[in-house]
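Handoff note, outgoing to incoming analyst
You'll be picking up this chain. Sequence as last confirmed:
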Amino acid sequence: MFAAYQRFCHTTSMRAQYFQKMLEMCNLINDPDWPKGRRLRELEVAEITKGEAAVQHAITSIHSFSNPFTIPNKDKLYSLAYGTAASPEVEFDVLRAETAGQAAKQEFIEKRFKNQASDMGFFDPVKKLKLLTMEAGNKVAKLTSSEGKNDINKEQLCQLLLRVWSSKAAVSRREGCTAAVLVMEGMAHRLTVTDGEVSSSEIHCLRSKQEETHTRVVLYLQYALSSRFKDAVVCTPDTDIFVILLHYASSLNINIHLDTGMRKQRQLIDITALAKSLGSDHATALMGLYTFTGDDCNSAFRGKGKVGPLKKHQKYPRFQKAFIDLGSDWKVKDEDYDALEEFTCLMYGTTCIKSINEVRALMLRKMVGDEDKLTSKSKIDFSRLPPCKDSLYPHIDRVNSVSVNEKRSHVAIYDCPLPQDGHSWIKDDGPLEPLWSRGPVLPPSMVDILEKGDTVDEKDDEEDEVDDYDELLAFLAEDDE
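Most recent structure output, in case you need it:
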């Protein structure tokens, strides 16, 4: 049976080719009513590539097993799958497993066949021997999402990669890749393979104090440009990197492409062409707008997403200067505070009111009702309200702080003040936390404001909170056209 299956595996590709050729000779392969009906799936390029990848995975798995004939220490038992030595307890039980099984068999015969006076019946359950196996020495650690994102774990992983890639054992697995760069703890290590030997050297121009990966990408592009590369592909699903690359694309003399998505959703975006079509000012304003509406370090406005504010920005270009100014200096200008407050009012459906506190009061009044008063029993979703001024201005400070770092992505080392020094962050004994408000979120004067009967247009307040990355790109493409 095994020989027949082996012959089938060896000849299936050849038989498919013969069958395909026969169909072509009989003019059965190009049927206009059924263009793909006579094509063999095994001969399609995607299937061939998939099969070759599966074979390579199987070969890699086999090579990953420990070779029992090359293990230096013959005095210990090793797991072929994991390559680790068994503990003394496991080794003792594995080596005595056959002897223990023979003893249990003899005991079964003596007590259930020969000894008629025994109380134990023939069909009584047989106790399982409690013996440790090789699997007992293979401990699997399960990490939660928060543990997996721990900075210590990341550092240990990078150290492991550096140690493994620098070893001679990794040379055979790096065929076709004579050079690789690994960035760890602000230092870039260049690994070069020459005559079967791996040499490691530091790339000093990439030594950086940038804390975030998305701000260091620009340094990598500058290094690629200095190495006389004309094109660069950045592989990431991170939208932060997308907007940073749009900002820098016009100033870098290199064609930048962004490889994002997986499988059928995978796409290659020409960042250089997109930035050129948008213009440098629009691309810079887009980076400020993206950070203002929420990113990895800043909170978002509930129910507003990204595309809705972007449409507002396109419709009212007078706010572009305020978003361009974000990150130009560590201190926000007063006119930019006012412009961003007015834009926030615009996001919540008002075109003639510039005070965010007034918009907040009017929206709350509409939620409560004209004749009712706000009580503890009122069913109000306060998360749908805009932030008050005492909360919006600290948000703008944090956005500006992040934007400063993003606009200095091309600088490896620069003086950066502490976030808690006037940038609306708080750090006591614990981790860094945002300063959510400079005063009470619901001031006592709110009671008097609620007595007024003004209304507010909320027709744009029901946008989806979660935006599709493809939708954002589609909107930019439409605007380009």
